[in-house]
Amino acid sequence: MTPLLQVRNVSKRYGSRIGCAEVSFDLYPGEVMGIVGESGSGKSTLLNCLAGKLTPDGGQVVFDTRMDGPVDTLTMSEPQRRMLGRTDWAFVHQHARDGLRMGVSAGGNIGERLMAVGERHYGRIRGQATDWLDRVEIDQARIDDRPEAFSGGMQQRLQIARNLVTGPRLAFMDEPTGGLDVSVQARLLDLLRGLVREMGLSALIVTHDLAVVRLLADRLMVMKDGRVVEAGLTDQVLDDPQHAYTQLLVSSVLQA
Amino acid sequence: MNAYNFAYLDEQTKRMIRRAILKGLAVPGYQVPFASREMPMPYGWGTGGVQVSAAILTPEDRFKVIDQGADDTTNAVSIRKFFERTAGVAVTERTIEASVIQTRHRIPETPLREDQILVYQVPIPEPLRFLEPRETETRKMHSLQEYGLMHVKLYEDISRHGAIATSYAYPVKVAGRYVMDPSPIPKFDNPKLESDAIQLFGAGREQRIYAVPPHTRVVSLDFEDHPFDPTKADHSCDLCGADDSYLDEVIMDDAGGRMFVCSDADYCRDRREAGQSGAKAGALS
Amino acid sequence: MIELSDVSKSFTLHNQGGARIEVMSGASLSVGPGECVSLTGASGAGKSTLMRLIYGNYLAASGQIIVGGVDVASARPREILRMRRETLGYVSQFLRVVPRVPTLDVVAEPLLALGRPLDEARDRATHLLAMLNIPRRLWSLSPTTFSGGEQQRVNIARGFAHDYPAFLLDESTASLDVANRDVVLGLIEAAKARGAAIVGIFHDADARARVCDREVDVTAFSPTASGTAA
């Protein structure tokens, strides 16, 4: 089976400082990969390089496109990459504000990607938006409300709906539950799990929270100082950590 | 004694503006940046339109200026006088006699000809500005034809008002490529954007010029199930009886009395001189 | 079905001076279809460790662990994930679930992960929950608030939702009353009859007697016993 994403030697430097260095891995359809590490580990830098928000200094990010098979997205033209970002890829930001149009209604936010790929029937757009509000457990009656009026958890769920409406195959998530209350986090994780399975979504999730990763990710990469120090099955890496840093990370988690 | 260069601007500036105009005509609807000059009127008073007119006027031209359809408002009068003084061109209030017409917020009712030029005054040239404040982003959207956001605006209208509520500055797609703001003309005027005349748009403060060449396809954006509707007040002109022109509502007294009058003063006068009359003909003295 | 050859396991505690602890050495085991093997040995001898090694939860230091043709000790994560989905069922001692998911869906999940239609998965879940005497009114609730025994039964129901060719059962009858223990043993017998290979830890001698074909004492695999220095 062709990997959905093949990452080879992706590196990003800031002068003499390493953002991330020589990262390589394959991601298959339907797999969720967690990327964990503490602040400064390079996990967000890596995610942004893979998602096309930062230009890496070296390496390849080969995505299995629908039309042309595996293509190195780093060599794509900008229009192609932006189109990818609206169709096959999704990016869920930590702060919903960065991923939503706060001045546009919930329905408009969800409908935007549809309109961006040519949907021109108001009734159908609204129908799909309503559908998705349901799937992310937002009251349909709020379809015309602006996200400014939503709670943090709702805004995040709206961001997810907005991203998933065009049925992407790969989702990049940067601390999707960061900053949310614990009970709200649980609900969101549950939702993400369900959607990932229902839609056969692959995902790359950056987080510093090991509990999130245990719940959501099949596989795990541990980063420190810009490098991947350990990788493998999530439960194996967390239950039987091999690298010194991973052992430190795992043993540092406070038990409630 | 006229101490100004013809039409106020120096020849080099006019050349620069003409280059921008040619570019705009070559790429219909595309906003061409230009080095907008300091004019002897403040921004917001038509400096863009004035600069375009100044660059294209020749001594043989006949110049008409309208402001919301009227030749006799302060702005229209000032601009007309400006060009009388600095260019010495002949002026007229009759649409059919003019070779260059500068307008604020209306298109004349009388269909224009191939030998005429319509110059629009534009406040904000960027149709996406209110949804996407970043100039870097809107430029990308235009160059990559990413106009989904434009439809988001229309979607918002329908969800809030049940219909596309944009009643002026209604966005259009020009020659199947660029989305353009036609300036704050009423949507009723949008069909007239498909014209035999040259249409030039000048935004002085924002420093952009754009253009629609003659016989260019201009389509107002809409949804399949909410098609574009160029509405106007459901009334006919009380002076000349026209029911196909855009109307101004005039308050007559403090008891709620009102009448509807053609916004295009020249059009109305022509009809009245030809013997047409409306319900309250003679009410305005 | 399940073949272990010369498996060893050690832990290196980097943050405690690099202390290395060998916990297993020379472990070999063979379980064929329809066989149920019971792991015995004192607490801490390595019974759970062995199960976790077979499941891929622990990394083997050396040796081979073949489950349904996949060598867990050297397979890629993808292959182990598929093995867990299709081939090897695992009923652990503790129920670990995502909060808020209703019991019915917890039990149906393994079938959904295999791509079975929702109603088929839920039907099977219904059948198992009924068999294990979980009251219907609890099916729409999350099992996180259930009693220990109820949680264990939900755990078992989930474990048996799919007819795996191989099972790992860790104390599956521990907190059950006689009637429910009987049901679970029945499930194990049915699995055996189907040809499943089973490795289990049963502290209950009667349960062992009923379903297990032989016993393997993991003390034989502790490093001192096999003669290799710790």
Fold topology:
The complex is a heterotrimer of chains A (256), B (285) and C (230).
Chain A: E1 5-14, E2 17-27, E3 32-36, H1 43-50, E4 58-65, E5 69-72, H2 78-86, E6 89-92, H3 96-99, H4 106-116, H5 122-135, H6 152-164, E7 170-174, H7 182-199, E8 202-207, H8 210-216, E9 219-224, E10 227-233, H9 234-239, H10 244-252
Parallel strand pairs in A: 3-8, 3-9, 6-7, 7-8
Antiparallel strand pairs in A: 1-2, 1-4, 4-5, 9-10
Helix pairs in contact in A: 4-5, 4-6
Chain B: H1 11-26, E1 32-33, H2 47-56, E2 62-67, H3 74-87, E3 90-91, E4 100-104, E5 117-121, H4 135-143, H5 148-161, E6 172-174, E7 178-180, E8 198-203, E9 208-212, E10 218-220, E11 247-251, E12 258-262, H6 265-273
Parallel strand pairs in B: 2-3, 2-4, 4-5, 5-8
Antiparallel strand pairs in B: 1-9, 6-7, 6-10, 8-9, 11-12
Helix pairs in contact in B: 1-2
Chain C: E1 2-13, E2 19-31, E3 36-40, H1 47-55, E4 62-67, E5 70-71, H2 77-86, E6 88-91, H3 103-113, H4 118-131, H5 148-159, E7 166-170, H6 178-194, E8 197-201, H7 205-211, E9 214-217
Parallel strand pairs in C: 3-8, 3-9, 6-7, 7-8
Antiparallel strand pairs in C: 1-2, 1-4, 4-5
Describe the structure.
The complex is a heterotrimer of chains A (256), B (285) and C (230). Chain A is α/β, with parallel strands linked by helices and 256 residues long. Chain A is 39% helix and 26% strand. In chain A, the strands form 2 sheets. Chain A has a 6-stranded mixed beta sheet, with helices on both faces. In chain A, strands 2-1-4-5 form a 4-stranded antiparallel beta sheet, covered by helices on one side. Chain B is 25% helix and 18% strand. In chain B, helix 3 links the parallel strand 2 (62-67) and strand 3. Chain C has 230 residues and is α/β, with parallel strands linked by helices. Chain C is built from 7 helices and 9 strands; from the N terminus they run βββαββαβαααβαβαβ. In chain C, strand 1 (2-13) and strand 2 form a beta hairpin. The A-B interface holds A 78-79, 82, 86, 101, 103-105, 107-108, 111-117, 120-123, 125-126, 143-144 and B 131, 140, 144, 146, 148-149, 151-152, 155-156, 158-160, 223-226.
